[in-house]
Write a structure and sequence with these properties.
Distance between the termini of chain B: 41 Å
Number of strands of chain B: 12
Radius of gyration of chain A: 13 Å
Number of strands of chain A: 11
Low-confidence stretches of chain A: none
Oligomer: heterodimer
Distance between the termini of chain A: 35 Å
Largest sheet of chain A: 7 strands, mixed
Mean pLDDT of chain B: 92
Largest sheet of chain B: 6 strands, mixed
Order of helices and strands of chain B: EEEEEEEEEEEE
Largest interface: A-B, 27 and 23 residues
Number of helices of chain B: 0
Radius of gyration of chain B: 13 Å
């Protein structure tokens, strides 16, 4: 039972560098999400994908782009990393957001990103 | 707008004692509330949710939560704490109009001491 898999687990970038965070789920879920977790601020939604082929902005989308490559994979790209993007990034998926009973999110283990 | 607040950054409790982790919500409409737990270096795991019906919701690992509409609260409880319950707990509310948007509290660190 892999669930939600994120790569890499750790990354250090220099200001201005770019990188892509990978996320894949094997639960045949329709919806996928990217969050960032900062101390004392809980989780904040960056982008989400309600279904394959669609993406939408969350609370804090600036500086990020996403791609829903297929039903399984949802990547997050930082085009020009900034120190303010130092954070822990979590990918999550849920079966179907519109159905309350299926609206539970399953999270990956996270990517710890430092931007120097 | 929807939001939740967790007023305590940290809760300390002795093993075997009851525990409560507090959450209050602000929602214009019927709230759909969740509790998640995060163990060190892990992603969040679902504990329980309130949709409608019985105000006492039972979840995983012996946890339960009480929904109180008059106090706009959804406190997480457990009758007898275990050291292994030590973790970070998050309350969350689902968006009223956008079902894909969840709003998380800032988290409460639970320390259970032997």
């Amino acid at each position: 039972n892999a669930g939600v898999t994120q790569n890499p687990k750790f990354q250090v970038l220099k200001t201005g560098q770019s990188m892509t965070l990978q996320c894949a789920q094997d639960m045949n879920h329709n919806s996928m999400y990217w969050y960032r977790q900062d101390p004392g601020m809980g989780l904040r939604l960056i982008y989400y994908s309600a279904s394959e082929g669609t993406t939408d902005k969350g609370e804090v989308p600036n500086g990020y782009n996403v791609s829903r490559l297929n039903k399984r994979e949802f990547s997050l790209r930082l085009e020009s990393a900034a120190p303010s993007q130092t954070s822990v990034y979590f990918c999550a998926s849920s079966e179907a957001a519109v159905t309350l009973a299926k609206n539970i999110q399953y999270f990956g283990a996270g990517t710890r990103l430092s931007v120097l | 707008a929807q939001s939740v607040a967790q007023p305590e950054d940290q809760v300390n409790v002795a093993e075997g004692n009851p525990l409560t982790v507090k959450c209050t919500y602000s929602v214009s409409g019927n709230p759909y509330l969740f509790w998640y737990v995060q163990y060190p270096n892990r992603g969040l795991q679902f504990l329980l949710k309130y949709i409608t019906g019985d105000n006492l919701v039972k979840g995983s690992y012996g946890f339960e939560a009480e929904f109180n509409k008059s106090q706009t609260s959804f406190h997480l409880k457990k009758p007898s704490a275990l050291v292994s319950d030590s973790a970070l707990y998050f309350c969350a509310v689902r968006g009223l109009y956008n079902f894909n948007k969840f709003y998380f509290g800032s988290g409460t660190k639970l320390n259970v001491k032997p």
